[in-house]
Amino acid sequence: MTDNRFSAVQSDLIAILEDIPPERMRLYVDRYLGKLQETVIADPDLLLTLETYVSCHGQMNELSSKLFIHRNTAAYRLMKLERLLNMQLKSTDSLLLLHLVFMFRSILDIRGKEASLPEVDMNTTPYKLTRKV
């Protein structure tokens, strides 16, 4: 699986993670993002804030800069997320766990898109590729 959203290191990690059964990945995504996904309707910025915070390795200034929000707004959103998820987001263990969960979610999304693509039989397609001489 190749996707331009990921660095070379992330792509290598994804290659390793792809051996994990999708059901197991879905279990972790639902366990750690389930409450948040239910809340997204009321506050759609929370999921984006969390994903950006994790991708910024827990750096508040980088988070606020990437989202174009004030640092206090970012801090308030993170406080809401900590209460909702019942975890300390500054903890490296939490950041690692959430990073894996977001990678699982990306893998599942990509697999879902690949599975929904129709297969094309090049022998029966009405469009023939011809070369002009």
From TrEMBL:
* Superkingdom classification of source: Bacteria
Regions crossing the membrane: none
Any Pfam family from its record, for instance, is HTH_30
Q: Identify the stretch annotated as signal peptide in this record.
A: none
> The PucR C-terminal helix-turn-helix domain covers which part of the protein?
46-101
Q: Which InterPro entries match?
A: CdaR-like_regulators, PucR_C-HTH_dom, PucR_C-HTH_sf
Protein name per Swiss-Prot or TrEMBL:
PucR family transcriptional regulator
